[in-house]
Amino acid sequence: MLQVARGLLGRMLVYDAPEGRLSGRIVEVEAYRGPGDPASHAWRGATPRTRIMFGAPGHAYVYFTYGMHHCLNVVAEPEGRAAAVLVRALEPLSGLEWMARRRGRLPRERLMRGPGCVGRALGLTLRHDGLDLVEGPLWISNLAPVRGGRRIGVSGRVGIRRGAGRPWRLFLIGHPCVSAVRTPMRRGV
DNA sequence: GTATCGATTAGC
DNA sequence: CTAATCGATACA
Fold first, then answer.
1. In angstroms, how far is C6 C1' from A189 CA?
2. Cα A48 from Cα A139, distance rounded (Å)
3. Which nt is closest to the CA of A116, judged by C1'?
4. Would you give per-residue pLDDT tens digits along chain A (189 residues)?
5. Is there contact between A40 and strand C, defined as CB under 7 Å from any strand atom?
6. Distance (Å, rounded) from C-alpha A78 to C-alpha A180?
7. Strand B: which nucleotides have any atom within 7 A of a protein Cβ?
8. Can you give the C-alpha Rg of chain A in angstroms?
């Protein structure tokens, strides 16, 4: 699962939306497990919401939270074992006009900085929950990751209480599109 | 059925 | 620091 999280950094996420192609490079992720990870939605086992997390890898787990945000995850373990990688930030690559239309006029690096902002910029909803991320229309490119020579930083996960000690947030060190969070870095890779 | 709480964000 | 805002979940 951490392997998947690491492999996602620098990869391109593409959404062939009705209005056109939106895409971005993944620069920040967080890994979540199932039972045994108290910060995970799936820590008490499968529920209607977390069903997808227990399903086949390479699918989208989209959840709705705080009454207003849709967040995107990539299911990351074989069927039957719950795990997902939360996509926390993207560097916008194409479709910036549409992202700006949803997010407002913002500097490019702020369009998809933060998991709620990613969902908002791309126009994700619960209709995207369970989508196959290989087939599209929402998919992850299999081209080699591009990290621009940046190393991978590791820290605790953001916005959780239980399970906060686990160093399962990965990001590209120094990338301007990584969300500004005061979680101390554990190490660079 | 009701009550509580967010894997967040923007704004003061 | 807090409000916003509502689905998922737990519990009676």
1. 40
2. 24
3. B8
4. 999 999 999 999 999 999 999 999 999 999 999 999 999 999 999 999 999 999 999 999 999 999 999 999 999 999 999 999 999 999 999 999 999 999 999 999 999 999 999 999 999 999 999 999 999 899 999 999 999 999 999 999 999 999 999 999 999 999 999 997 656 677 666
5. no
6. 32
7. 6-10
8. 15
